[in-house]
Amino acid sequence: MQLARVIGTVVATVKNESLKGRKLLVVQTLDRNLESTGKPMVAIDAAGAGIGELVFWCRGKEASFPFKREDTPTDCTIVGIVDSDAHVTR
Amino acid sequence: MIIARILGTVVCTQKDERLIGKKLLIVRPINVDGSDTTGYVVAVDTVGAGFHERVLVVAGSSARLAQGMKDVPVDAAIVGVIDTVDVTSP
Question: CATH number of A2-85: 3.30.780.10, 3.40.50.300, 2.40.50.220, 1.10.10.60?
Fold first, then answer.
């Protein structure tokens, strides 16, 4: 799992049936100093995150586990919201 | 998931029988601002996407979780056609 900042939203009307009703957010991965690292990704939201929030996300097949795990095609899912930047001890 | 643009098609007569009837497209990953990156991926289309459209591509074993892709040997699937990407900060 990695820390990331939610920086945007994606709207896709035409999508795979199994993604219907899921919220798509753009996340920028952060390093341990909360600096941007790597390219932004599109993630499905499983935690109710919003723009600007610090979140953590998991990638790979495990990303589908918060949903119907055999039916949700995602490799990047927001699984938690960090209470605040100050809660990241470094 | 990554954002990508469709660059072309692949025609392949001799293939695994589980891939019969599946549309194969060449996609290039792009940045959230729409600018091109390098490289390409051959992805299976699950939504009926067309040339030059921006799409959502799910990679890895999660690609098999898309509807209609069960037990199909794929590691990249197009699961959505993007209407808008709204990013507040880079």
Answer: 2.40.50.220
